[in-house]
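Check out a protein:
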Amino acid sequence: MSNRRQFVTRSALLALWPVVARQTVLASPSSLPSWSNWSGGQTCQNQALLYPQNEPELIKILKSTEGTLRAVGGGHSFSPLVPTRGTIISLEAMNGLIDHDPKHLQATFHAGSRIAQASAELWKVNQGLFNEADINVQSLAGALSTATHGTGRGLQCLSANIIALKLVTAQGDVLNCSRTEHPDVFQAARVGLGALGIMTEVTLQNRRSYFLREQVRVMSISEAMLYVDQNKDRFSHIEFMAFPFGNRAMVKTLEETQSPETPVRESWLDENTLLEFAANTAREHPWSNPGLQHLLGMFVSDSSRVGPSWKIYPSTRAVRFNEMEYQLPAAVGMQACEEVMTAMRQHKLDVFFPLEFRYVAADDAWLSPFHNRDSVSISVHQYYRQDYHPIFAVIEPILRRHGGRPHWGKLNTLNGRDFQEIYPHWEDFRRTQRQIDPRGRMLNSYLRRILA
């Protein structure tokens, strides 16, 4: 690559996340360190929390420690991918743009970079990610390893844009992987669950930087579903968030534009404050839920804004929740969505958070939930102070019946046999994982259970 460039990224990282890079920290015999994900739904006590500052230090850690090793990114996965009684390793100090190629629009990042940071750094070199999720505080390694995605009929998940990656195995060996170099490891590690090793660098295929126009419309659920179905090919990005008990929905569309950036509009009421209040009220007084959801239109009005893609994609998500998400064949998406909302009403499920409906294009990564099929993504959320089991127990069978595959970073109840049935390359992944990690050091109890 040309134009080799190293950014000073510590201040950028501090702006993205409250946890700063630290020196290696080992547990004392009398007090084990603890870890928790963003929602508080996954916790553990472990032998050590380690923060290598560079790749040589990481290799030294891998060669000098014993037992299970798990890498952690932004802590935004709700599934039990991280918890272990062994060693947790964070790459938050290993972040920033390493190199970029202006001709081929490719860029190499340290894998500990947050999505928000990577997107902002790309803007400086006239590049942009093809798509982003609206939560962008995940690390690149974590988001790629779980097939994190945005929305758009013609847009794939982030992992589909990996050109090459560097993987450090549990033994401390360094593998440079691509479609031509260690191709099986590359196909497995693109959505690797952190089960093969620790991704330290990744090269992404990007595009020229661009501006987006965001439009939000509030309407009834039936109007929203019809609008999205009729306009799914008109907009590059389209989704809706439905409040089933109040019969209201927000439709959000994004399209490229040459218009100038609009100024930030100040609001008298913070959306996160409103959401926290409504979720708490619905939790304490379930009878108020339909009315609160119906009042959505009074507090959220139709809006439009324009700006650089890296500013328009993200939304601030300050109110914590737990989430289940399945990817279904695109042809059955609307029908499944209808069934989910009907079940929520019939069972009178105690939930205020909306159901989210998005589109994602097919790719060929072995463990991508979008493997070889265009999909719709249906997400169900529950406020973190409420038990998510009742709602997920009702919704998951519907999503599975329609051929759904769960998001790797979201909650689900599938086991190894289930995954074997829905992923054609499941055995290829297991074989590759055993070959490069024969002692299974990268597997916590959850991964051991599903890969056994």
